[in-house]
Amino acid sequence: KLKTIAGFDRIGEENAFAVLARAGELSAQGCDVINLGIGQPDFATPGHIVEAAVKALRDGEHGYTPATGIAPLREAVAEDLDRRHGVAVDPGHVMIVPGGKVTMFAAILMFGEPGAEILYPDPGFPIYRSMIEFTGATPIPVPIREENGFAVSAEEMLSLITPRTRLLIVNSPANPCGGVTPRAEIDRLVAGLDAHPGVAILSDEIYDQMLYDGEEHVSLLSYPSIRDRLILLNGWSKTYAMTGWRLGYSVWPEALIGYARKLAVNCWSCVNAPAQFAALEALRGPQVAVAEMLAEFDARRELVVAGLNAIEGVSCIRPKGAFYAFPNITGTGWQAKPLASALLEEAGVATIGGPDFGTLGEGYIRLSYANSRENITRALERMGEFLARGR
Ligand code: PLP
């Protein structure tokens, strides 16, 4: 009998992928399913980025690259961070990785072990908790509350730090709630971390360019006092509609970049070479498509929020970032997961139940508005009709 390590019995999943598979099955059976479940832009990757990858392939970029990524791309990432956040980043601390998730995996692996505590947002991206449990560390949920606009509360997060805390995870703009943590709150968090110099921070800023209503993105990179223990997670998946390319980057502190590089050498060697040239074009080429996609997301956001609030029993605060709405459904009398499942099976609308993002997700469902306005309108009509029928 095979005996694997116990971690594999604790590892979780991302239910969005199961919903995607079920929606696919229903579509194959001829059902008209509208997918508001999966968190990926519905746009094609901008043409000039695709062309850069094709050119790289034609130019013979077929071999291994350095484990941390090609030098021009690491330089371009550093320049981009400097331009957008006014911070100097050493390209030697930048690492190109196969997707945003890989930074999460590497950071949690570096700090998670039995006896260690890792703080993560709840509701939050489900892989944080899954990976923490895999390592045997204790996951400590940090509540993300609707009454707080789904922003991180510095006070609450700091109050959960113990002598066993090794890593804390911050995500703003956030999945699944669309919350953006304001500068004053991040200032408070960073100031409070002075008292805990042994705690590392993983800042997941993958939605940093997806902001609405003039919201600003405050990168944790811009705080010198935590630079020696900050791991920045970012990438191209969301901003440039490149989820399937499997591309991401991290910025590591001096003390950890060597470990991250060794992990790459042991595990994935390097990121797909032509994809790295595409990523370079994404950063250095025209940014028009990014602005256009954002304007479209903004219009859809209006549609989703207005549509949800028009349904009896449902209320939805305006998300400030990312492309998710996280409506409160307690007034419908439904539990979140049965509602998400009934909406898919009986109304042809795929959403994700809030509990798939953590214990505090009960009473909510997540809708991704990365779908056409027409489909969003139809989905909201179906939801409204479905809920009215059940009354
Ligand atoms: N972090 C958050 C908060 C996300 O929502 C996602 C994707 O849904 C990721 C990271 C992973 O991104 P990638 O597809 O680049 O691995």
UniProtKB/TrEMBL annotation:
Top-level division of the source organism's lineage: Bacteria
A Gene Ontology biological process term: amino acid metabolic process
Alphabetic keyword roster: Aminotransferase, Pyridoxal phosphate, Transferase
InterPro entries the UniProt entry points to: Aminotransferase_I/II_large, AspAT/PAT-like, PyrdxlP-dep_Trfase, PyrdxlP-dep_Trfase_major, PyrdxlP-dep_Trfase_small
Record's catalysed reaction(s): L-aspartate + 2-oxoglutarate = oxaloacetate + L-glutamate
Signal sequence bounds: none
GO molecular function: L-aspartate:2-oxoglutarate aminotransferase activity; pyridoxal phosphate binding
Cofactors, names only: pyridoxal 5'-phosphate
Stretches assigned to the Aminotransferase class I/classII large domain: 32-382
SUPFAM superfamilies in UniProt: PLP-dependent transferases (SSF53383)
EC number, as in UniProt: 2.6.1.1
Similarity remark: Belongs to the class-I pyridoxal-phosphate-dependent aminotransferase family.
Protein name (database record): aspartate transaminase
Taxonomic lineage: Bacteria, Pseudomonadati, Pseudomonadota, Alphaproteobacteria, Rhodobacterales
